[in-house]
């Protein structure tokens, strides 16, 4: 089968990288101070962080318009037999459910496969790479969908943030909790295990939070009996901090970090700049 692969910008794959890979990345839309933007189309990472630092900036995230998604699928099906679409986890956005409903239309049924792999960022990127490799192996679209969905729990992510300001602004925690946390200098550590973003632990310093994330990922790898795995780092704005963390990770695991990406703006708007994430996923394909 001639199969097209699509994802959204929450995968961390840029439009330029998508062109090189031969995939399509659907940009996540934003409304910033009542103006419409799309990630990596008319809103860059630098522009975003300049805006988000202003406490009066109103940022609302959304999901791709079904009309735009429909057009992207129609275009892909002009010269492909099927489309594999891998959006961000259904537990973090309604975009996956909306796409699933759209794929049930007569026009797309049996041709467009929407995969809820319950991943985001660097682990979602791994899904895209694996889909491309499975296409090379001659798998059908249904086989690829079944394989990738069956692996949805074979990934783990931990994220730490230096301030509670943006979690409060986005309504993720109450103002009272944010104030208390700031007074105590708490650095929360969040985790994504399957669908939801949940609190995992907390630390008093970013240095301690970084160590906690390393130990948590080590524990997950051991308990899940992964013979081989990929390691990933994601960050918001501060690449230098991420590069420093990579050295710490590689020394702790005696294993290379496979790639490092900026976190998507859809995530960054809730956690703010200078955040760090460590992720791992079971490796199936070299």
From TrEMBL:
Classification via SUPFAM superfamilies: DAK1/DegV-like
Q: Which UniProt keywords apply?
A: Lipid-binding
GO MF, any single term: lipid binding
Under the heading InterPro entries, the entry gives:
DegV, DegV_C, DegV_domain_contain
Under the heading Pfam families, the entry gives: DegV (PF02645)
Q: Give the domain of life.
A: Bacteria
The protein's name in its UniProt record: DegV family protein
Q: What is the originating organism of this protein?
A: Intestinibaculum porci
